[in-house]
Amino acid sequence: MAQRGRPQRPLVVSDEDRRVLEQLTRRRTSAQVMAQRARIILRCAEGGSDGQVAEELGVWPQTVGKWRNRYIDGGLDALSDKDRPGQPRKISDEKVEDMIRATLEKPPPDGGTHWSTRMMAAQSGLSQTAVSRIWRAFGLKPHLVDEWKLSNDPFFIEKVRDVTGLYLNPPDSALVLCVDEKSQIQALNRSAPVPPMMPAVPERQTHDYIRAGTTTLFAALDAASGKVIAAQHPRHRAVEFRRFLNQIDRETPPGLDVHLVLDNYGTHKAPVVKDWLLAHPRFHLHFIPTYSSWMNLVERFFAEITRRMIRRGTYTSVKELELAVQSWIEGWNENPRPFVWTKSSEEIFETITAYLQRINDSEP
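Above: the chain sequence. Below: its structure as C-alpha cells.
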C-alpha cells in the first residue's frame, strides 16, 4: 500500500555517528532525553517509518519526524537543544558531565558510602543549589539505596508458571491457599505510658521498650475470597506446621482439593509433613522459587497486619498480643479483601529480562 502523507527524507548514519549514538543509549551518564533521541535516529536508519519508530519507542510520530529532520540537516550537533533566550548558561556541559561521573563512579573524599550536595559542591566548585538541580535533572539520589535479589532456583521458570497459573486460572472445585508463618512477633511494652494523639500533636512512644516474649502467626490466605485461616504457636517447627495443616483440613470443605502456595522453608518439606500429605491426598503443594516471597500473596496480608496493629502496638504479655492478633484477624474475615494477582508469567519474565538487559548495557 502506498505511504500516506509527506514522503520521509532518507536518513543515513555514518559508522562514526553510529558509534556515538550507540554509546549515548548505553551510558548511565547520558541524559535520558539524549538517549531517546539517539534511539530514534538509530531506528530510523534501519528503515523504520515515523509511525513504526514512534510505536516501538512510545513517542509521537511528530517527535520522530522532528529529530529525523534535525539529524539530516545538522548531524549529531543538531540533537542537542537549541539555545533559548535569557541569561547564558554558567555551567558547561563538560562541568555537568564531570560532576555526574564523580557522583556515579568516585567515592566521596571522606571515605563515606555516598555523596552529599555539600560535599559534591566543595569537590566540583558548584553551589549546593546547582548540584541539587543537576541531580534532580538526571534522576540521581545518592542518599537512597534500594534492595534487589534474583532467584537462583534452577526451576524458577517452572515454578513461576505454576504459581501464576493458580492465581490467574485456578482449578475448578478447589481452593488456592497462600500459606506461610510470620515468626518472632514480639510483644513489646513501652517503658513509659503512650500519650494519645491530640490536635497538632501525634501519638508519642518511647524509643525503648520491654520485651515480653514472642509468638508465631501461621496464616493461610484464600486467594479468591481474601479470608484467612490463622493459628498462633510459640515456635514454628514442622510439628506446629503439621498441626496447622490439620486445622486447614478441618476448616475447609471436605469435597474440595486444596492447593497450598508455600515458600521453601525446611519445615514445609519435613518428613512428618510428607507423611501427612500421603494421608491427605486432596492437598497439593506448590513451592514458589527461592528468594521470591513476593509471589506469595499471604506476605501482603502480613504486611497489612504489621502496618495496622503490630508495629505500633503495646502489649504487656504474649497472651495479650495473641488476643489482639486474633481479634484483628476476626475483624478482617468479617469483611475480607482479596489481593488480586494481575501479572502473567510471561510478563514477569519480560520484566526480569529488561532489568538484566539494563544491567548488562550499562557502562562503569
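The mean pLDDT is 88.
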